Amino acid sequence: MSLWSHIFGEIGFRKLNALFSLLGLTLAVTVVVASQLLAEADERETRRVTRDMGFNLRLISAETDLGQFYRDGFSRNEMDSAMLDRLATHLTNNVSFNHLVGSLRREYTINGQDILLIGLSETYVAPGQGKKPMGVVIKKGTIHIGSEVARKQKKGRNDTMHLGERQFTVANDPIETGTPDDITIFTRLEDVQSVLRLEGKINEIEAIDCLCLTADQDPLAILRKEIGNILPEVQVVQMRTLADARAKQRQTREKVNQFVLPWVLVACAVWVALLAVLNVRDRRQEIGILRALGKGGGRIAGLFLGKAALLGLMASVFGAVFGTWAVLEFGPSLFPVTKKAIQANPTLAWQMVVATPVFAAFASFIPAMLAVSHDPAETLRED
Amino acid sequence: MIRCDDVTKIFRKNGSEVTSLDRFTADIGAGEFVAVRGPSGSGKTTLLLTLGGMQRPSAGLVQFSGRDLYGLSPADRAGLRSGEIGFVFQMFHLVPYLDLMGNVLLASPGKPGPAVRKRAGELLDKLGLAERVSHRPGELSAGERQRLAVARALLNRPKLILADEPTGNLDPENAAEVVRHLAEFHKTGGTVVLVTHGTTADTHADRFLHLKQGRLVAD
Ligand SMILES: Nc1ncnc2c1ncn2[C@@H]1O[C@H](COP(=O)(O)OP(=O)(O)OP(=O)(O)O)[C@@H](O)[C@H]1O
Ligand SMILES: [Mg+2]
């Protein structure tokens, strides 16, 4: 009598017990899959939004008049680029901002065309956080030009252009964006510094907030305090609407992950364990006779752990399918901010296929040990 | 085959003590057909479970083919049960969700090969259950269930069969039939220890042990 045919036979015989275990496990898998898919959508969307819309914190000199700043689109008060380095050394997991880029922005005239010239430093990322710096990386000796610059100057990718006395190669295909980027030339910070003869100067530091602060914490006040402690000579401007929507949704989802998820898992484990205990009680006679027939504890534990693992395997398939379906079906209306980023994840489904049988076996471990330690003489005596 | 020296079993529960076997001493030889008798509560089941390595005595020595049965490791004792001892109980103790074939094959120590399946089929045939192989125990009459239990006990060609009132739930005809199968096993050289209230065993048993309050009072 092989272990598996034995297990299959028992499941078919006590259908309700198996069905309830299966339901509990399926619920656990569904919740895990759904919350994980939403988390991934959230992350994907955050990445996309950040890439599309750029940084949402702008640090400029405290002396800057905001009227001038909003009118011109940049600050006319320069700061030492050493301030960027100082801020970068404070990038850890304990601060609420990340991804620092220093820049020097000025109006500039090239062959009679008024443009915006922006020099960007490399991106500073907190250790162990960003894998890739966000935004474009500008190679040495190259510039990225806006569509209107390209049109007026009759330049395209791989053409050369002069800024001051220095020659650069156009590295991008200019595309019209409908933003000031269309009349902008981007290049490396040190190139703009030398063109404008403002060596060692920047006039802005861009950053992203961690999206981890709740609205009632007043994130801007916290950010101002954190940054002000390091750089008292700057003022912090935050693009709020963007930041708020992202932060809010992320918090909703994380609340689910941090609070609901563990409790659902614990409840499911307890449920499965209780059903296994009932199953062991139902099968005391059987355990007794298996002992009399010379079966060892391994075989008896195997009957219960194997059953749990088998139900876990089935639940992982049902749960992965059901959880994915539920998220694809209802996710977009529940989480509108990230609806475009919601998608299925086959890798996650495979992980569930491996993890759920293990989870189920763990939940049934104590009942299985109960079965093994059962004194067969007691049940065999019963008549 | 089995030697018992001063085997004593005391159950302790909530301070009260029950002595269900009291210095039981006997030597059961290979090929004997032993009937065990005694009033209810005299320790017959306790004796049988102790002989079968299912219940450790509080004191005394049980030797099986010269080996100290309770000195063996649990795994060795289980191996000995599976290979050399067959059990038959009053309540049949069949596995309800396995078919007849599955119940018989359950006795197989490993994954049953073709030879074992063939033997299981032959046993079911011999015990008049050939037509019912794919049925479940719940679909059988009491007599059929007990014959199934006998088939299961015989699968591994044991040396010893321990039967605890196997006829207790059967009408006289079925009881006689079950005892006849045990007698047949005895004729082919097997040892039988049979706990019984009835008289059907009398014609086959060649030795009677009488228990009273855990003590052997007549041999
Ligand atoms: N687990 C136990 N705990 C306490 N007492 C027990 C236990 N098992 C058996 N006994 C007691 O041991 C004594 C002998 O029991 P046993 O079952 O061996 O008797 P028996 O001769 O088989 O009786 P019957 O003919 O009714 O089956 C009885 O008094 C019983 O109550
Ligand atoms: Mg009894």
3D architecture notes:
The complex is a heterodimer of chains A (383) and B (219). Chain A has 383 residues and is α+β, with helices and mostly antiparallel strands. Chain A folds into two domains: 3-48 and 248-382, no CATH class; 57-238, no CATH class. Chain A contains 13 helices and eleven strands. In chain A, α2 runs antiparallel to α8 (240-282) and α10 runs antiparallel to α12 (365-372). The radius of gyration of chain A is 31 Å and the shape is elongated. With 219 residues, chain B is of the alpha/beta class. Chain B has a single domain (28-53, 81-218), classed as Rossmann fold, CATH 3.40.50. Chain B is 31% helix and 29% strand. Chain B contains six helices and ten strands. A six-stranded mixed sheet of chain B has the order 6-7-8-3-9-10, sandwiched between helices. A four-stranded antiparallel sheet of chain B has the order 2-1-4-5, covered by helices on one side. The A-B interface holds A 1-2, 5-6, 9-10, 12-14, 285-286, 288-297, 376-377, 380-383 and B 45, 49, 52, 54-55, 74-75, 78-83, 85, 87, 89-91, 93-98, 102, 105-109, 111-112, 152, 165, 168. Bound molecules: adenosine-5'-triphosphate (ATP) and magnesium ion. Adenosine-5'-triphosphate binds at residues 11, 13, 18, 20, 38, 40-46 of chain B.
